[in-house]
Write a structure and sequence with these properties.
258 residues, alpha/beta, Rossmann fold, 7-stranded parallel sheet, 48% helix, 14% strand, globular
């Protein structure tokens, strides 16, 4: 019987690339997105075997919706072997602008509360089964704060610490928690960035390395490895030096800016 992977944010970017990688490795797919028509059209265009995939509509930022979809997946396809909380958003913000507080709220609702709500339907059942892997998608941007990127950076910093907490809770019951920290991947999320993106990866290359890390049960994996070196260096930089390096760096664009 094929193993089952559950992926949120599967209609584009790295979520879609992960779905294709898992399918090619012989897995069945439970795919979650808001744009189910686009996702269904993509799966059909890839000629995926119909018995091996199913699409669910949910907005990850809506706790009741995403929890309900997880329960439906268990009822209709069984308990997944791997759950990847991939859905996330990245929008710049300016704390001096009142409307941007709502942007921060939206980012946290998706990237943090939505991640926990994605895992919720599966945790107890995986513990009872004493197997399974929960995967949180963090980011190298979660290591230090970047100008105009306060909401996103802090949300991804929270993914690191949340997954670390969950890892300690689940380890005694045989459930793994893997944190994947992408660097820059060529997706719609990054194409509007107004600054350099070193070691930019194609989604399919990221998906291959992420699959290998998840299969290996890695605790935390930076992809590509060069960004892991960058992350370690960023952690070690004194604050004053870090501030000088960022002086004049273009800010992350706000919603509606070009």
């Amino acid at each position: 019987m094929n193993r089952l992977v559950y992926i949120t944010g599967a209609s584009s970017g790295i979520g879609q690339a992960l779905a294709l990688r898992y399918y090619r490795e012989g897995w069945s797919l439970a795919l979650v997105a808001r744009r189910v028509d686009d996702l269904t059209a993509w799966a059909q265009s890839q000629q995926l075997e119909s018995a091996r995939w199913r699409v669910y509509r949910a907005d990850v930022s809506n706790v009741d919706e995403i929890v309900d979809v997880g329960r439906r997946c268990i009822a209709e396809q069984g308990l997944p072997d791997v759950v990847i909380a991939n859905a996330g958003i990245s929008i710049g913000m300016d704390t001096a602008i009142y409307e941007d507080l709502a942007v921060m709220q939206r980012i946290y609702a998706t990237n943090n509360v939505g991640l926990a709500a994605t895992f919720h339907p599966f945790v107890a059942a995986m513990r009872e089964r004493r197997s399974g892997t929960l995967v949180g998608i963090a980011s190298v941007a979660g290591i230090r704060g970047l100008p105009g990127h306060g909401a996103y950076c802090s949300s991804k910093a929270a993914v690191f610490s949340y997954c670390e907490s969950l890892r300690g809770e689940c380890r005694p019951d045989g459930v793994k928690v893997v944190t994947i920290a992408p660097g820059y991947v060529d997706t719609p999320l990054t194409r509007e960035n107004r600054y350099g993106m070193p070691f930019l990866m194609q989604p399919e290359d990221f998906a291959r390395k992420a699959y290998e890390a998840i299969e290996a049960g890695a605790r935390v994996r930076f992809i590509p490895w060069q960004m892991g070196v960058v992350a370690r260096a960023m952690r070690l930089l004194p604050g004053a030096v870090f501030d000088r390096l960022l002086a004049g760096r273009p800010r992350k664009h706000r919603q509606g800016e070009t």
